């Protein structure tokens, strides 16, 4: 079994632990009314998007999400939350260093505390039980989001039950043989759709795209056809399933909690990799953490 396959299968237990930990970390996470930015890179950025949308939907305060490299230093926030599995990613460390002595509280949600981030963030939330050996992120990212969902009052045991269902039920028929994959979301699940597409690219080298569901008819559906699969990770707009099927493409409507639907996509990525003879533990051109040299930082 690959590292990533093992780790994606442990997500329900990790989510339970994160939800149990959330009350103890209440003071370290965004308080109602705080103007907050949540940042990350790659997968963590997409989790930040989902968390920001959820917090605003709950009316807990203005919340933005940014890639760490694109954070607008001219804006004023009460708190910045950095999601970082490794604690070594250059862009995250640079941002936290730049926010020191500015009066902005910084919290890092991390998998490995014995890393440079521990000296740069004001506060740490350690999810070391969800850390991973794999390059491709699964359980750390979804566990970090679960921690924030629980903090916002939006986690229930049914989410964990749905994750177990996602691990046990068969994947959509013929899904692993498709050549193109599109993932759709609405509201907070748009970030999950972006993460689903990223997983298909990372683990399976697949042509994959992601969009807000209502935007799919504004151009992207033009490339749908018999070799495509379109998967909705949230509420499905009326009539869209029929329009996708009319192109000859396969339609998959998410029935579970959107985060549990992402677990199904994790499984699909592994299945597509196997179908193509790829090793998901050896993703092409990727490393577990992006650490830039001084020269690379200067020209990015």
UniProtKB/TrEMBL annotation:
<feature type="domain" description="SIS">
    <location>
        <begin position="25"/>
        <end position="164"/>
    </location>
</feature>
<protein>
    <submittedName>
        <fullName>SIS domain-containing protein</fullName>
    </submittedName>
</protein>
<dbReference type="Pfam" id="PF01380">
    <property type="entry name" value="SIS"/>
</dbReference>
<dbReference type="InterPro" id="IPR046348">
    <property type="entry name" value="SIS_dom_sf"/>
</dbReference>
<dbReference type="InterPro" id="IPR001347">
    <property type="entry name" value="SIS_dom"/>
</dbReference>
<dbReference type="InterPro" id="IPR035490">
    <property type="entry name" value="GlmS/FrlB_SIS"/>
</dbReference>
<dbReference type="InterPro" id="IPR035466">
    <property type="entry name" value="GlmS/AgaS_SIS"/>
</dbReference>
<keyword id="KW-0677">Repeat</keyword>
